[in-house]
Amino acid sequence: MRMTAWVIFGWARRSHLRAKLDIEVFPPSCGEGVGGWGSLDASVSHRQGPPSLTLPQKGEGSGRRRALFFFSFLLSALLAAPLPALAQEPVRPVLTVIAHAQDTAMFGPFIGSVDARYRTDLGFQVGGRIIAREVNVGDTVKQGQRLAAVDATLLRLAVQSAEADLANARAQLANAVLTENRSKALVVTETASKAQVDNAVAARETAEAKVTQAEASLRQVQNVLSYAELIAPYDGVITAVNSDVGKVVSAGDIIVTLARPDVREAVVDVPDYLAPELLQYPRFDVTLAGEPSIKATATLRQLAPASDATTRTRRARLSLDSPPNGFRLGSTISVSAVRAVPSYIAVPQTALAGDGDRRSVWVVDAVKSVVAAKPVKLVSLKDGYAIVDGLKDGDIVVAAGAASLEPGQAVQLPVTPRSEGQK
Q1: Any residues with CB less than 8 A from the CB of 152 and at least 6 apart, and which?
Q2: pLDDT for 417
């Protein structure tokens, strides 16, 4: 509307100038003849070329004065009308967090599982074809119980051969003993020489050595025959089975895995950057997944020195203190810990503005809804958060968009949704 008023004002001003020209140059009292319209027409007509001004006819000056008066009145009305308010700059919405001082540090929770501290991979000490497997995953076994067996036909034949060698050695020993006794008797009657007696003694000693060798060979093949059966070395639970009946295995191949259920521990994989913090927590709280009422405490027993190449996590093994029966092997658990630390305030790293030693955050005035830069000191960075000094408990800090704000800029705080009970 203001622009329209100025356009009309400019048009009216041009009309006023033209009317003034008419009044001064061509007064309406001028008649025809000398000094009147006729002389002016004559003075214009003798010029060379087209005329530069088209002169109005008589009587047009009063009409233009009336038009000027009308448009002046219209312009006054337009200028007197109230102008619309200028559009205000929109208030910028921001994401904020409320700074809270904390005096505890929390680890986790991380998901893990219950595992046996002592676990053994069992396999045959001889190769062969499996002819029996008497256990499955989850079976409880006793010490000395047979778990699996391979075909022992060749091993039994080796035992029979060793037994025959031993019988032969014993027969030779008996003959050597008789020969020695006869030689000693002939020496007394001087029928045999001393050299013959010495040879008989040597033959007897050789026969004794062969008997000893044959007995050792027999014990060896008998032990090998016992390796054809896989025996449980202690009471435990079968946690894995890797071979079935009919498979031909070599010595040392893993057949089953046996674990001791009496000594259990919690196993959890933690990110590599958090692993060193485990050493700062004296005890951990372990809760059974799905049953929060079943819980136990644990202490760190072992931390892997290197992270896994694929997951970039490090495995921690925690010794459980008197775990309840619900903590069965393979159960899913949650591990967490809390410890006291000096009071600190943490804000998202995106709330920081500036770099180096000149850091600041934008703090919102809850009454005026404007922002102001507040200098802070960066203490440390951890897991997407920045621990800073310089804030007070309860400060409203802009969490995102800190780089595009200006001091005193109006912002809109997030609206907290009402609960169903609120009106």
Answers
A1: 128, 225, 228
A2: 43
In 3D space, the residue among 156, 140, 138 whose CA is nearest the CA of residue 229 turns out to be 156
Cβ atoms 386, 393 nearer than 8 A: no
Q: Which residues pair with 76 in a beta bridge?
A: none
Q: Is 97 exposed, middle or buried (0-12, 13-18, 19+ CB in 10 A)?
A: middle
**What local confidence, expressed as pLDDT, does residue 155 receive?**
92
Measure the CA–CA gap between 399 and 349, rounded to whole angstroms.
8
**In the numeric block, which tokens belong to residue 58?**
């008589």
CATH 2.40.50.100 is the classification of domain 120-148+231-260: yes
Q: What is the pLDDT of residue 25?
A: 40
| 112, burial (CB in 10 Å: exposed 0-12, middle 13-18, buried 19+) | buried
- pLDDT for 27 equals 46
Rounded Cα distance between 256 and 147, Å, is: 8
Predicted local confidence at residue 157, as pLDDT: 94
Query: Residue 95 corresponds to which tokens in the numbers above?
Result: 């994401």
Write out the CATH class of domain 343-412.
mainly beta
* 244 neighbors 144 (Cβ within 8 angstroms): no
For the segment(s) 152-227, the CATH number from 1.10.260.40, 3.20.20.140, 2.120.10.80, 1.10.287.470 is 1.10.287.470
List Cβ neighbours of 154 (8 Å cut-off, separation of 6 or more).
128
Q: Which CATH superfamily is domain 261-342 in?
A: Efflux pump adaptor protein, beta barrel domain (2.40.30.170)
If one counts every other C-beta atom within 10 angstroms of the C-beta of residue 148, the result is 24
Residue 105: the pLDDT is: 81
Cα separation, 408 vs 397, in Å, equals: 14
Query: Of the candidates 237, 327, 337, which has an alpha carbon nearest to the alpha carbon of residue 284?
Result: 337
Mean pLDDT for each consecutive 10-residue tract of the chain (423 residues)?
Answer: 50 49 43 39 41 46 58 58 52 84 85 92 94 92 94 93 93 90 80 81 91 93 92 92 92 93 92 86 91 91 90 92 89 91 86 82 88 88 84 87 81 56 36
- Break the chain into its structural domains and give their ranges: 2-48+57-80, 120-148+231-260, 152-227, 261-342, 343-412
